[in-house]
Description:
The chain is an alpha/beta fold. The protein has one domain (9-315): TIM Barrel. Helices cover 41% and strands 10% of the residues. It is built from 13 helices and 8 strands. It has an 8-stranded parallel β-sheet with strand order 1-8-7-6-5-4-3-2.
Amino acid sequence: MSPSKKTGLLDRLKAGPVICAEGYVFELERRGYVQAGAFVPEVVVTHPEAVTQLHREFLNAGSDIMEALTYYAHREKLKLIGMEDRIEQINNAALKLAREVADEGDALVAGNICNTNVYEPGDKRSETEVRGMLEEQVRWAVDFGVDLVIAETFSYYGEAKIALDVTRQANATSVVTLAVHREGLRDGVDPVEACRRLKDQGADVVGLNCARGPETMWPLMEPIRRAVEGPLAVLPVPYRTTPEEPTFQSLTDGGCNCIPDNRPFPAALDALACNRYEIAEFARRALDLGYAYQGVCCGAGPHHIRSMAEALGKKPPASTYSPDMSKHYLFGTDKRLKKHNQKYADRL
């Protein structure tokens, strides 16, 4: 299948910001279709209607890219749930679902590859295994006719480099993003240098995704912008990470003693979430800095994507229902509202 005839990613980025909604496995876990821990997207074959609905909600909220839910749909993860023999079926099903919804609007379709959890620096056997796992996923995506391949959430520069090489050999437009943990990238390469190298090696778009929330992703963004020419990507998680707890895996919640292992990640992060206005403010600042490819990663909901889209000057269909508190019976200002309710607002 050939790529769509829609305007491609790089031309879109020249014209303005592009939004890619991520975080499907987290949102589908909240809805009861993905298991926290394994986070394997078997949902694309067990409950495809749930994936279609989420794609549609993200499209309605302003996502310019429908990313096929093939995150963790590689052999290493599928082994955990005894579905390795269905790997091609799962990947192709995810691509089909993304394409069907993308064609309801003007969205591009992205194939997706990610961290394999197999890679070990200096271990040639692991490098060969990683390459083989990623090659088959990219082959299925390119044969399907995706508009781009997103290689994401790599905490090793060396693994991201393999992913880029696989994508380039397939002649696919590439977006490569790194997940920077508390101590940095796990093979010791500086994230700024890693982005510079990946760009020099032919990545079309480089940047950051996952792990860090807006506050702790920001300090990495400015030096990357200074070091790298061309379009940059940033997709934080929507959680209030801090310099002391810079990633959502490291967050603690002192207000609750009922969380297993006293670790909010991944299923008890609710009280630590960013609101839509924080995401909008981050989006505006990121665009001013030169990050035109934006999104929200694990934890994202359609309301985050809509606020991001509006902050970047877009008006997606979901903007029809953006908040308008002038109509609220207590806090509103509409002349048709009852004054006795408005007067009562101060007593709440």
